[in-house]
Amino acid sequence: MTVDVRELADLGPADRTAFFDRDAGIDAISDDVREIVDRVHEEGDVAVREFTSEFDDVELGNIEITDACERAYDDLEDDVREAIETAADNVREFHEAQLPEDWRREFGPGRELGRRFRPIERVGVYVPGGSAAYPSSAIMGVVPAVVAGVDHVAVVTPPADELNPVMLAAIHVAGADAVYSVGGAQAIAGLAYGTESITRVQKIVGPGNKWVTAAKAAVRGDVEIDFLAGPSEVVVVADETADSDLVAAELVAQAEHDPNASVVAVTDDADTADAVAAAVDEQTEAREREDVIRGALDNDASGVLLARSMSEAILFTEEYAPEHLSIIADDEESILERIDSAGSVFLGPNTPVAAGDYASGTNHVLPTNGGARVTGGLSVETFLRSTTVQRLSATGLADIGDTITALADAEGLEAHAESVRRRIEDSENDV
Ligand SMILES: NC(=O)c1ccc[n+]([C@@H]2O[C@H](COP(=O)([O-])OP(=O)(O)OC[C@H]3O[C@@H](n4cnc5c(N)ncnc54)[C@H](O)[C@@H]3O)[C@@H](O)[C@H]2O)c1
Ligand SMILES: N[C@H](CO)Cc1c[nH]c[nH+]1
Ligand SMILES: [Zn+2]
């Protein structure tokens, strides 16, 4: 299989739908996932065990495996332990910088308003682990929750006859309170509704494949979720100065996550487009997960695209709203200035997406399927709720009294107006 260069100007309506309304295979499985979710809701652990046997080929013993994480940490080799700790420290530092302060100030005489922030009490973090293990996702999901002050952070992660020790150790370092050996849609349903073994949570966060993502969509409404963080995506915007091998390496890297991943390079330079397509072919052949990569490259939402101008490439990217946006060009900042919709941005030739995937400190749990049009990735705010607070003095209330009563009367809500008039009258009588 070779990667073809396609001209943006030639894309028809069906191509545009494939790029801009991409669903990573999620829509087609939503009925099957609904059935899994409903069975776990009704039958608890029995259904969890049955689906785990069917989809993971594992007969579950204990569903809760919290103690195994600390043991795995103690047995870990020094270099891996150091890598986990460095990554966790960097992620912690970046997320601590996001902690908002409670505040109050006077907006008018005697009218004091403010906001305060408190953590959600119980959250569940999905840590993927089907076709690859994701210790990094344990750090990305759990550390911000701990920084926010969440009281109970539960992790669910797919089981295996031999659980990945690096994954377990990373969950321990990140600071989870409870860990359950369950994956896929059954894990999401377990967190959403609770089972005999799994404590029900108030919000579920974290990435996963199409089964996990479809399950998050199914339980949304009964439990809060962060956003849909499905199979990985990247768009690389490149000009004629970009090294085509590096552009190709970005596509191949994100493609190795999942055959449902979507990877795009878009450039205004025909030679660069040809060179990127050739480099993608060459690099794919050399990769261990060649089949997965080829699956992703074959997607209708993947490709190497030639634009007639950088403006056209930028418009395409804005409409695509990728999870990851890499810009490798002469003037990256001015291109970035014109793009609002992207989960996480990587500027310049020395900033691979893998830096954010693992260790720079930003979060790699990011919206896919165009979610970046309306939301950013996981952050400390994901785990906080805000409350507004106000205190009015007699002067403060008198100052806005007519405004309130006029609007309350206009809405026909006389008792609202009365609750204000009484106070104003009382304070006038006090004078
Ligand atoms: N968007 C993000 O922020 C982000 C971050 C990291 C990873 N990811 C994505 O996470 C995903 C990880 O995928 P994965 O598969 O390796 O692990 P996973 O943990 O997401 O999925 C594995 C689970 O899928 C379920 N499953 C598999 N086949 C099934 C079937 N036929 N029917 C029902 N359930 C089935 C199984 O129960 C299994 O436990 C990738 O798509 C990757 O791109 C996304
Ligand atoms: N690129 C993924 C987010 O889409 C995150 C990840 C984890 N490990 C490697 N990469
Ligand atoms: Zn990645």
Automatic annotation (TrEMBL):
SUPFAM superfamilies to which the protein is assigned, alphabetical: ALDH-like
Assigned GO CC terms: cytoplasm
Enzyme Commission no: 1.1.1.23
Keyword annotations: Amino-acid biosynthesis, Coiled coil, Histidine biosynthesis, Metal-binding, NAD, Oxidoreductase, Zinc
Active-site residues from the entry: 323-324
PROSITE patterns according to UniProt: HISOL_DEHYDROGENASE (PS00611)
NCBIfam families in UniProt: hisD
Protein name listed in UniProt: Histidinol dehydrogenase
Organism field: Haloterrigena salifodinae
Gene that encodes the chain: hisD
